Model the fold of this input.
Amino acid sequence: MAKRLYGQLCPVARSLDVLGERWTLLIVRELLLGPRRFKELLSVLPAMGTNRLSERLQSLEQAGVVVRRPVAGAAELRAYELTPVGEALRPILMQLATWGSTLPIDADTDLDSARADLIALYLAETRPAEPVGEPGTWQFHVGEQTFHLHAEGTEVRVRSGPAVAGADVVETDLGTFQALVTGELAPARALEQQLVRGDGDPAALERVFALLRRSAEVNRTS
Done:
């Protein structure tokens, strides 16, 4: 089926010609967390189906938003990642997320669809642009999810999958993670109650949730 375009010179219409179809922005959202193979995208967006996912990825490739590259250590495999054109959408999607966070939750919304990596992504990307102190990396295991966070300079970035090496490991469940980033639960208390497990310095645990919790406080008052 031919793609339906607005056919207007307006920049908003031209943007929607690329991004306006259902699921397209959610693919971009996933790639903000780093490169993903086709089956990995399908696993987090299962309702799309293989045909629609293929179509959307092809359209994004043609528009120069994503590119396929060999997977490190497995040259026969390919993963999709954002191009510089696609990366330019990062602050736009975060602004959209900020706006969406003010909307009421619809009765049909699946509350079980909450994901720790997306929560961390939003909080990290919308925190104040201020120095984070010494560089640090944390690897999170939240339920069945694994992702990592790296803080350096004024940036805090969240990526899918395990860290390369040298990360402090944090293991917990989604409910505890949410309580920690909102400040409802202090890291020291979570450790005391054995709601969090890790192999790093307790001070490092305090630090990473301070980085994310600070974002949560700003967002609640914005």
The mean pLDDT is 91. The first strand starts at residue 66 and ends at 71.
